Amino acid sequence: MKYHFFILFCFFNSFLYSQSKKNTDSVSYYNKLVNKNLENKKYNQAVFYTQKSITFCESNHKHEGLANQTFKLGKIYYKQHKYDEALKSFHKSVASFDSVKPTCTKVLALHYIGVANTAKGDYEIAALYYKKAESLLSQLKMVDHAEVLNFQKAMALKANKNLPLAAKSFHEIIKKPDNPSILKTKTDAYYQLGLIETQLKRNDSAIIYLDSALEYNSKSNNLAQKSKIILAISQYYKKNKNFDLAYSYLDEHYQLENYILKIKNAKLDLNEFEKFKKNQSLNNTIKRESEEKIQLKTYRYSKLVSILAIALISILSLLSLALYKNNIIRNQNNLLLREKNKELILAKNKAEKASKARSEFLSTVSHELRTPLNAINGITHLLLEDNPKKTQLKYLESLKFSGNYLTTFINEILEINKIDSTKVEIENISFNLKELLFNIQSSLKELATANKNYFNLEIDESIPDNLIGDPTKISQIILNLINNALKFTQNGNVNVIAKLYTKEEDSATVYFEIVDTGIGIPEDKLQTVFESFSQGSIEVNRKYGGTGLGLTIVKKLIELLGGEIKLKSEVGKGSTFTFKLKFKINNEPLEVVEEAKPYNDKQLKNKSILLIEDNKINQMITRKMLENKAITCEIIDNGEDAVELLKIKRFDMILMDVHLPGINGTTATKLIREFDKTTPIIALTAISLDENRDMLLSFGMNDVITKPFVPDEFYSTIAKFFD
């Protein structure tokens, strides 16, 4: 075994030794040095060795080599943006080809003269040399299938900041038919167009080009190219403040970079190993030959031992070096990953802040809209009660419908914001699910009749009567789903099914299914219908109306209650929504809640109410609504004056606006309760994301009326306190 190893080792060393005997003063030798320095971006050293190569070619009358090396020098200058020096070299290269047969290098030299002039802005000279390059390419019967020359020309135009002409050249490239050799160039062309459109702030075009670049890249699987495209897409979404997508693409970019770095490190270790092995073998061979000349016969055995020892030391040294380098690279990677992780955390925090700002903005907008909407709804109600003309009645009914529609829309926005901001509280109270479903069916019978639908309710008798859960949110879910089914179905069937799925000692899981035979949903829209403001298509929105928020609320509420909604649908055949919810079972009998009695106008007559409201229009509307029921109304527009008045004068009731100049309604209520514990105080508020009924009642208020007022609810709430 040792003998075979020795033969192999000697053969390898003798090969290296024979290689080292070659003349180091040659074009190939200088080219290796030039390429090595270019890889390390040591341009001055690269220029130095290229000039030595040129001198060698001149001394040995190697005309073609001189032309090629002069062209290479021009390319080095061009990479450094030293266009004047580059042009001198390119012209010298073209002149050198006069004494030899032209090759593709001459075509490239002519083309690069055009590119360098383009980068300098001398377009007329550039055009002349582009034509010369194309003519010579045709003479040589060569075709630029990869469109490399056109791509370089476009990049030169971009470098000179002539973006329109650069974009035009890139467009010419992407119009070329696909072939394996052009894939990389087309991908880069789409990428550059995306960068140009981003620079020109044409965002819609930019993302289309970048997505196309990513699509073309998938055909070639060029990881470095894919990494830079994904980084550009991430920066695009960051500029457009879509931080979720920006973070997602940035994370993918870092994963790719890390993977490329691992591959590069693996290659680097292998190259270092080969280089070290060659050098070490060369030294051992020289030493062995020297020893053989001096004592060929006397020291044969000791020579063999020495060579084997050196080989063993070399292997151990190599392993130590590899371990050392690997440790350094690992530490560098860990540092890089830590830095990138910090950047990702910052990006995530920014995205969360942006999402919070969006929720607060929508909440504020919906809150602020309630005050003018209260005026619209209130004035409409007053006009309808004031015996309008028949010609006016139609317009007032339309105005009432629009006001109610807008109120529903604002309430749904607020509902979504509350869910997103985790400010929704889940109730756990006893209720009868069967009774709840029957009540929902009764409330929607008119809508079913209007669209000529057969509305059927199937309830499993084995479902326990008393369940513990949140009946309000369950009603909201079922109402939305049935309302949608009835709205999008005409002359059809709507079935609502509730079955006992599983039952344990203290809990039960109920399976719900809402099936319709309506218009159905296209397959490509099945996921997006649960997104905000989505209704499948513009045509559906125009024909059936609606806000496009109902299914969003349904999905979020079901997930909040621990369930998951599923959808199956086929266009023209209908849709099926299914979900399961788990409830606790209440074994105690359910308390009977008396229904609220409708109010009587006599309850309100001759009562005195103090209205504390700063908005003049709301003052006028509320006063008129109260006076229509023979109620005496006095108005104060701030909290401080109201507190002082109530110290000396009594009223049957106080209507307190929550948002007042000076002290707000909650503070005023606390001050009033210090000296008056009995007078009912009802809050008037456009409830926002940071307000809720329980919070307002905690300040001493007896009830809450939400703006915009629903007249019957307004009067009923007041009447409760005048029994």
How far apart, in Å, are the first and last alpha carbons? 112 Å
Which consecutive residue ranges, at least 5 long each, have pLDDT under 50?
A: 1-23, 533-547
Largest sheet: 7 strands, mixed
Give the strand tally.
12
Q: What would you call the structural class?
A: alpha/beta
Measured by DSSP, the beta-strand proportion falls in: 5-15%
Helix content, binned percent? 55-70%
CA-based shape: elongated
Please count the helical segments: 26
Q: Could you tell me the mean pLDDT?
A: 79
If you compute it from the alpha carbons, what radius of gyration comes out, rounded to the nearest whole angstrom? 41 Å
Describe this structure in words.
There is one protein chain. With about 725 residues, this protein is an alpha/beta fold. The chain is about 65% helix and about 10% strand. The chain contains 26 helices and twelve strands. Strands 1, 2, 3, 4, 5, 6 and 7 form a seven-stranded mixed sheet that branches. The chain has a five-stranded parallel sheet with strand order 9-8-10-11-12. Helix 10 runs antiparallel to helix 11, helix 12 (about 225-240) runs antiparallel to helix 13 and helix 14 (about 300-385) runs antiparallel to helix 15. The longest helix has about 90 residues, at about 300-385. The chain is elongated, with a radius of gyration of 41 Å. It starts with a helix and ends with a helix.
Summary keywords:
single chain, 723 residues, alpha/beta, seven-stranded mixed sheet, 26 helices, 10% strand, elongated
Write the layout of secondary structure elements.
Layout: H1 2-20, H2 27-39, H3 43-59, H4 63-79, H5 83-96, H6 104-120, H7 123-139, H8 148-159, H9 163-174, H10 183-199, H11 203-220, H12 223-239, H13 243-295, H14 300-385, H15 390-420, E1 429-431, H16 433-443, H17 445-450, E2 454-459, E3 467-469, H18 471-487, E4 493-503, E5 507-516, H19 538-544, H20 550-560, E6 566-570, E7 574-585, H21 601-604, E8 608-612, H22 616-627, E9 632-636, H23 639-646, E10 653-657, H24 665-673, E11 681-685, H25 693-697, E12 703-706, H26 711-719
Parallel strand pairs: 2-4, 8-9, 8-10, 10-11, 11-12
Antiparallel strand pairs: 1-3, 3-7, 4-5, 5-7, 6-7
